[in-house]
Protein: Fatty acid hydroxylase domain-containing protein
Amino acid sequence: MNVTIVEQFDENKATFFAKICDKYFYSSELLTFCFCIFTTFQIIFWLFNSFLLYIEYNDIPSIDQYRLQKHKPKLRFQPDMIKIIRNGIIRHQISSVVMLPVMYYLLNAFGHVSVTGPIPSLFTIVWQLSIFILAEDFLFFWTHYLFHTRWLYKHIHKKHHLYKQPIGVVAVLADPLESLFQNQLGIWLIPILLKEKHLLTLCLWILIRVYQTVNAHCGYDLPYISTQYYLPWLMSGTLAHDYHHQHGKMNYGSFFTLWDRLMNTHKLSKED
Ligand SMILES: [Zn+2]
Ligand SMILES: [Zn+2]
Structure:
């Protein structure tokens, strides 16, 4: 009787992740981790991009006023563009499925990723996310800066710069080497080195990073939902990255403008 009460109590206390781990993933923490990170990416990527695709095909003056490269017509996906982006997205999805088990192994090799354990305090989540963001911004800036040196640009980074007028879905276009050393390294290095991390914090981190990159490529300086709308002096975002794609130089940072200001590579479209 007592055991039943304890079991019932534990069942009630189990987190969402622990419940789905037991119910759908044969109690495999690896499968639960891969599913949750992959699904977080898909939800935020496709939600944001569905909105962007909707405004791409529908002229809504109240939104179109925020479009950045107004001197050019909307892209509205030509057949060759659909093929390139579709292939880029498929490649990205396949590489995510292959990469996530490796990340799970690395996250546990240098520390411990808690999948079914109790949810960390808000304070822990906030300080860990802050460190992830600051470290990613540093790593992204310097690797991106390097990828703009002549040889690396020509052989690797040029693929990402295929479109001078970016839209959200082109965020995933990248050479595998760029994807590994510029994107994945910045996202995962600190979580791997951190001793104790929770799946919830990692899902939130993926959500923030994917939102940031789709926003950077969206082509609209949208109020309220864009990072650069808040603290425009500090936050990088669409204005900076759109300029970067349009001119193939300047604004190498991801979250903040600090490294660009320090290296004298900060310039915005509105200052043209
Ligand atoms: Zn670039
Ligand atoms: Zn880009």
In short: The chain has one domain: 2-271.
